[in-house]
Amino acid sequence: MADTPNDRLRQQIRRFVIDSFLFGQDELTDDESFMDGGILDSTGVLQLVGFVEGTFAISVADDELVPANLDSVASVALFVQRKLSVPSSSAASVC
Amino acid sequence: MINTPHTLSVVAPARLLAIDAHAEIERIARCVGEQVRHDLRRKAVVIGLSGGVDSSVCAALCVNALGPERVIGLLMPEREGSPDSVGLARQLGEHLRIRTIVEDITGPLEAAGCYRRRDTAIRTLVPEYGDAHRCMLSVTRVMDGRASVFALVVESPDGTRQRHRLNAEVYLAVVAATNFKQRVRKMFEYHYADLHQAAVVGTPNLLEYDQGFFVKNGDGSADLKPIAHLYKSQVYELAEALDVPEAIRRRSPTTDTYPLAQSQEEFFFALPWSVLDVCLYGYNSGFDAAAVAPFAGLAPEDVAIVYRDIEAKRAAARYLHEPPLLAGPIRSASHR
Asked: How far is A46 from chain B (nearest CA, A)?
């Protein structure tokens, strides 16, 4: 069965997080919390945001920097998918 | 972690962090005297004076411990610092009758590229940024209080301000460049310590020490830290009991790191120190957020966010506190 767009997003995001924050070595499940696991700190949040903005050509507002959007591979993938489906730059925040 | 719910109702809010200032001054002075004479075996202390309440209280405590002739106050202005800092530090030096030395660190900072490196990074976001512009970093708590992001606030020569959220590269470049200020200051403190066989006094209060509001091998470096166990409001209590000049006690805590005048809360804490004091006390004492809320003047859910921020900052501070890690035991070293 072919990968869905969400699957491909998850793979890209998981690869970035593993390479950037886990020395490229660890396993990471899609629902594992970045904050609870100590995977992301403040600079890490900025790096993750820079990655999704640069890779997917979207803009992330301050009020979108919430766990619902950015705390796991799954939540980031859903967030990116939502942003990509909103045509204008005024994409709605889920918070 | 926060455990069982408690109540704080037995303690009047204003007295929550009250201490017996005179007894504590006496205790710290005894401790500092012992540490300098016996543990460190130094003849004096060097202390960087910023004109703020923390360094002023530390200097006054050292005078109580060692006498004014064994306390050297170092004033280290640079071209972007507040002019008030030198004036107030000088006033304190005269008040305590200690020797003060002025070292303008602008030259060393220019030589290290502090300003140039920072401004080059800023120009990737604000290409027109030049000598007549001024900037500061402003903090926003995100991820439900578990992370902070910084915005660069730039003031143009005509007074208009623009705000840019920093990307990771610019943020790291700006911080790495400005950290030269704290590290150059510490370098001079140790220079004078070497010259006078003195110990260097670090001046963090508990909020700063616990939450990592210091630069590793910069203001975080010292031989003794006499007020690192005291909440900021307790430092003010000591300041009053030590008769620290009122102008210093009334001054708002400032970072004095960026060209635009900036409070500590804009830079790092995001809340006034008095509120954070209460929250940190509540957190450390195991009180749940709802119990602390009325004392902090915040809603319980906001205290919960502050608690998460305390945990996040404490986790980030772990690296800052870590001494160099060794790969094997060293039998000959006389570690205490």
From this structure: 5
pLDDT per residue as tens digits for the range A49-63? 999 999 999 999 999
Contact B149 A46 (CB under 8 A): yes
pLDDT (tens digit per residue) in A8-58: 999 999 999 999 999 877 789 999 999 988 899 889 999 999 999 999 999
Nearest CB partner across the interface for B142, out of A43, A45, A47 = A45
Calculate the average pLDDT of chain A: 87
Q: How far is CA A65 from the centre of its chain?
A: 11
Alpha carbon distance B238, A9 (integer Å): 56
User: What does pTM read for this prediction?
Assistant: 0.87
Task: Tell me how far apart the alpha carbons of residues A33 and A94 are, in angstroms, rounded to a whole number.
Answer: 18
CA angle B143, B145, B151 (to 5 degrees): 75
Distance CA B202, CA B54 (A): 10
CB nearest A65 (choices: B149, B171, B312): B149
Asked if A66 lies within 8 A of B166 by C-beta distance, the reply is no
Task: Using the 3D structure, point to which of B144, B161, B177 is the last residue of a domain.
Answer: B177
Mutate to test the interface with A, among B143, B149, B319 (most CBs of A within 10 A): B143
B11 Cα to chain A: minimum distance (Å): 34
| Nearest residue, CB atoms, A42 vs list B167, B169, B316 | B316
Instruction: Report the pLDDT averaged over residues B143-171.
Output: 89
Chain A residue numbers with beta carbons less than 8 Å from the beta carbon of B166 are 46
Please provide residue A7's backbone torsions phi and psi, each rounded to the nearest 5 degrees: -60, -45
ipTM at complex level: 0.82
- In this complex, the residue of B142, B146, B172 whose CB is nearest that of residue A43 is B172
Domains, chain A, with CATH or none: 5-82 (1.10.1200.10)
**Residue B334: what pLDDT?**
58
- For chain B, what is the domain count? 2
Is the distance from CB of B79 to CB of B134 less than 8 angstroms? no
Length of chain A: 95
A4 to chain B, closest Cα gap in Å: 28
**Which range marks the domain in which residue B126 is found?**
115-177
Instruction: Please indicate, yes or no, if residue B77 is contained in any of the structural domains.
Output: no
